[in-house]
Structures are given as structure tokens and as C-alpha cells.
């Protein structure tokens, strides 16, 4: 996938390639490269529960702006995230990609399954991603990323990976 100047529209095929690239960066623990996919004013949310109301006052497991997202990546990479010693391995599967919106405000929705293995135990997270995308000089960037977890109604214990 070319990371050059984006076309005036984001096709479903290009959105799929972009999502696969993002998944690969996360699975390979290339978190600094993953951060480069975000705009400076980006948000990253994992709401508490599967209610899709997107209410601004709704509780969230994760509700980060760009600065908090950078801090989260720093903790995961440098080691103060004790829940990631030893580090998890993950594998992400992406499907059902849809693209809607205008040139400068594109919404990419997709289904996801994230398998996490750590200390001999496996967990899975399943849900829907909502990526608000914006074109930039060096390709499409994330202005907002929300992961709606279907299994958030179950005990999640310590979610210490990037979903």
C-alpha cells in the first residue's frame, strides 16, 4: 500500500489495506510506527459496554487523546506497564470493511477479532472498529479510533494491550 499523498476518496480496498497495515504494526509491536498513523488531535476510545450511543459522557475503558496515547505506547515499550511483562503476543483479524463519508471526513467501519496470548493463557476480544480518517500529506491518518467490544459485558480483567 502506498503511503503517499492520498487520493480524493478512500476506496474500500484501500481502507482494507490500511487496516491490515495497522493490524500488522500492532501485532509486530511496532507501536511508534502505529502512532504515526494518527493525527495530532486524534482520539482513541474503548467504551464500557456495547451500547453504540457514542455519548460524550459515557464511561470508557480507554478514552485517550494523542498525548495520553503517546504515554500509553511509552509505558508498553519501556516496561513500566507491569501487566505486559512478559509481553503478550497478538494476532488481529479484520473483516466486513465499509467506507462512508466525505473526502475530509471518512468513516471506516470494520469487524475485528484480536487474539492475545500471555503467560500460557489466551484471550480474545471481538467487536467493531470505527476509524474516522482524514487525508494528509503522507497518507490517510486516524482522527478518531473507537473499538466497540462485544465481549465487554464479560469480565475483562486487565486490558493492557492496544485493542
TrEMBL record:
A Pfam family: Ring_hydroxyl_B
Superkingdom to which the source organism belongs: Bacteria
Record GO terms (molecular function): dioxygenase activity
GO biological process, alphabetically ordered: 3-phenylpropionate catabolic process
Membrane-traversing stretches: none
Keyword terms, alphabetized: Dioxygenase, Oxidoreductase
InterPro entries xrefs: NTF2-like_dom_sf, Rng_hydr_dOase-bsu
Family listed: Belongs to the bacterial ring-hydroxylating dioxygenase beta subunit family.
Name this polypeptide is given: Aromatic-ring-hydroxylating dioxygenase subunit beta
Native source species: Streptomyces bathyalis
